[in-house]
Amino acid sequence: MSIELAVALISGIVAVASAVLTAVLGSWAAKGRLQLQAEIERQQAMLHKHEERQDLMNRIRDPVLWAAFDLQSRLFTSLLMASCPHIYHVDQQGSACTLNVILCSFSGSI
Q1: pLDDT (tens digit, 9 = 90+) per residue, 65-86?
Q2: Does a structural domain hold residue 105?
Q3: Which runs of consecutive H residues, i.e. helices, occur in the chain?
Q4: Residue 20, domain member (yes or no)
């Protein structure tokens, strides 16, 4: 076998090995890129879902807080009027109610 033929054969083997190695590494990199892209999309979807949930909570929170505050005030006033009826003065029409004494225990005594 001549030297030129051996060099050509070795060059061909190296070229084929390089092409195979490039194809294998390229597919491995593409697979990793696809996995990374899928992870990024999953994280973006979770972030979008979290932002939508926060937006919904922000839109609902204020009215619910005001309703809870109003209910608490009404319950407190009802309990106070039931426990200490002598501290309120109601006018003749029954429309106005004034607080005569600030402190009163819920046992009904001043």
Answers
A1: 899 999 998 888 887 777 666 6
A2: no
A3: 3-83
A4: yes
User: What is the DSSP code (8-state) at residue 102?
Assistant: S
Q: Which domain holds residue 35?
A: 3-83
Triad 49, 50, 51: Cα angle to 5°: 90
* Residue labelled with tokens 């200490």: 84
104, 110 contact by CB (below 8 A): yes
pLDDT digits (tens, 9 = 90+) for 24-55: 999 999 999 999 999 999 999 999 999 999 99
Q: Does residue 66 sit within a domain?
A: yes
Rounded to two decimals, the pTM is 0.46
Number of domains within the chain: 1
